[in-house]
Every structure is written in C-alpha cells, then in structure tokens.
TrEMBL record:
<keyword id="KW-1133">Transmembrane helix</keyword>
<protein>
    <recommendedName>
        <fullName>Flavodoxin domain-containing protein</fullName>
    </recommendedName>
</protein>
<dbReference type="InterPro" id="IPR026816">
    <property type="entry name" value="Flavodoxin_dom"/>
</dbReference>
<keyword id="KW-0812">Transmembrane</keyword>
<dbReference type="Pfam" id="PF12724">
    <property type="entry name" value="Flavodoxin_5"/>
</dbReference>
<dbReference type="InterPro" id="IPR029039">
    <property type="entry name" value="Flavoprotein-like_sf"/>
</dbReference>
<feature type="transmembrane region" description="Helical">
    <location>
        <begin position="6"/>
        <end position="25"/>
    </location>
</feature>
<feature type="domain" description="Flavodoxin">
    <location>
        <begin position="51"/>
        <end position="152"/>
    </location>
</feature>
<keyword id="KW-0472">Membrane</keyword>
Length: 178
C-alpha cells in the first residue's frame, strides 16, 4: 500500500510539473514580442490594419497573409504587423481593423489584448480571428469581443489553415463586393 501511494504521489508530481511547463510555454508564445515587421498588401482605396500574435507553427501568420491577399484583391491596402514591437498605428486611419491570435489551452494573447485596450477603439469595423484546433468553440472569440466597447461593429471567426474556404466565405459575407 505504501508503494502504491508513493507511485501515485510521483505521478501527481509529474502531472503538476507538466501542467506548469505547458503554462510557461503557452505564455511565452502568446506574449512574445517580435521586432517591427510591417508588410503591405495591395494599393486599394480602402485601408485595413491587421495585427496578429504569431503562433508556434505559423498558422496565424499564414491566415493573416491569406486575409490580406484576399482583401488586396478587393480594393484594400492592408498593413500587417504584430503588437508590442513599437508599432503605433492610428486606428482612425483604417476602414477595417483585424486582430488575430492563436489559442493555446483556451488562452489568447494578452499582448494583443494590451495593444487593443491601449488604443480605446470606437466606431470601427473590426474582425477578430482566432486560430486553433477546435474551431467550433467560440469562448475565445467572445472573450476578445469584451476588449471593445459597443460602438464597434465586430465580426468574429475561429479557423485554422485547413479551413480557407470557411475564411473566404466569412470575408466575402462581411467585407468583399464579390
């Protein structure tokens, strides 16, 4: 009986260590500051700003670029960058503002949240997208909506790189003239 309790204790200690290490790893991804790396797509009449927190496997960046290219094909100039790198954009200059974050263990980027809440954005068209494995869950999208006041028009989507058709349909429904 004593050996069984020791084994259970060891297993529990290992599970706690794994949980702590996963939280540290998740936090390091969701809050990592990247160097200024502005990318511009298109030369359209309408302007869009897309700020995203990169994910570990580049999914969030790939989706950001996909969004930017589709908008650029539809008369937008799209500026892409990451938060927390000294980037300072006046949100008043944009017709559409997009924020994207990966989800790890139900958490989105607090760095992106800090960027948004510092801006006090009002009366704008906003898209929030999150990338993750379970795209039918909306908890994270709803959490991100709470970063804004009610004067903004907010559309949300949770997607992954295997759902480009879902993303295209979403963008066409809300922002594109096609």
């Amino acid at each position: 009986m004593k050996k069984l309790l020791i084994i259970i204790g060891i297993v529990l200690a290992m599970l706690i260590m794994i949980f702590v290490l996963l939280n540290i790893w998740t936090g390091s991804i969701l809050n990592k500051k990247y160097s200024f790396n502005e990318e511009i797509y298109g030369e359209g009449k309408k302007k869009a700003l897309l700020m995203y927190q990169p994910s570990n496997g580049d999914t969030t960046k790939e989706i950001s670029v996909h969004i930017a290219k589709l908008l650029a094909e539809n008369d937008y100039t799209v500026i892409i960058n990451t938060p927390g790198n000294g980037s300072s954009y006046s949100t008043d200059d944009y017709d559409l503002i997009i924020f994207g974050s990966p989800v790890y263990f139900g958490k989105v980027s607090t760095l992106l949240e800090d960027y948004v809440t510092d801006k006090h954005i009002t009366n704008k068209n906003i898209t929030l997208f999150v990338t993750g494995k379970f795209t039918d869950e909306t908890k994270e999208e709803n959490e991100m909506k709470n970063w804004f006041d009610d004067s903004n028009k907010i559309n949300t989507i949770k997607t992954n790189k295997d759902e480009s058709e879902k993303l295209d349909t979403f963008l066409k429904k809300h922002y594109l003239n096609n």
